[in-house]
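Example record

The entry below shows one chain as it appears in the dataset: sequence first, then structure tokens.
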Amino acid sequence: MKYVRYAGAQIPCTDNLDRNVQEIKQAILWANKNNVDYLLTPEGSLSGYFPGFETYKGRTLEDLYAAEKEVVEYATNLDVGLCLGTMWCEDDSRFPEGYRRENQIRFYTKTGDFLGSTNKHYAIPEYDGTVASDDINIIYMPEKIKAAGLLCNDFWGGSLEGGNLPIHVSGHLGAHIIFHATNGYRGEKRYYDEITDVWHEGNLRMVSYSTGIPIITVDNCYKMNGEEYHGPTSSTSGILLNGVWQVKAPRTGTQYFYHDINLIKLQQRMLYKDPDQEI
């Protein structure tokens, strides 16, 4: 019986591009040692998460592209598929700079082939500074798996006519699995942190229970702006199925985790099982 091993890396997402590259490479090395097939990193894990990411402190687009090439080649050499959360720039003559800024999850095979990207739909101007996507596309991964990549508020608050985005990608687009890369506000307001923590947990678990497809979610373990932080993440990192955590990462610091999923049942969307039936 064949299984696919999905993993997440709860790592610091800083404003230092070189530091971020090293954090991602360390996660990839761990993934290789643990025979991971696909590794998900947090929102903005390569670029950092702030407006002006492509020119911050003198950095250039070429620096960002070189950093992406470095981590993708490293993952390829270590036989790890990469689902990379990063701010990005796509060529677009409609904009004065000649490109549009996007907030993406970029998907790569173990051999380094670029499968495509999903762009944040529910972008927040003061934090993202990016163009919001009009729709959410499906990524066709190896082994005939249809994946949806949702970024932060795409899961918490994004919507399309007729329902929220996680339900939309599962029910209407036929996704087999959801990759959720997030980078939530935390560590500034006590009650806001408490309220959003409950909302995030309940939202993740109820959507997982309703859809019956695996959800891999991973948060930055620093503050949104990249400042060092030792408190709890804005949301739990881990892997959910049928509303139950299959693996749940500790809420502070760098954490890596994985879970094996039956490939045939995943392909056939046969993973749904009411957890109460086992009681």
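Notes for this example: The longest strand covers residues 81-91. The chain has one domain: 3-271.
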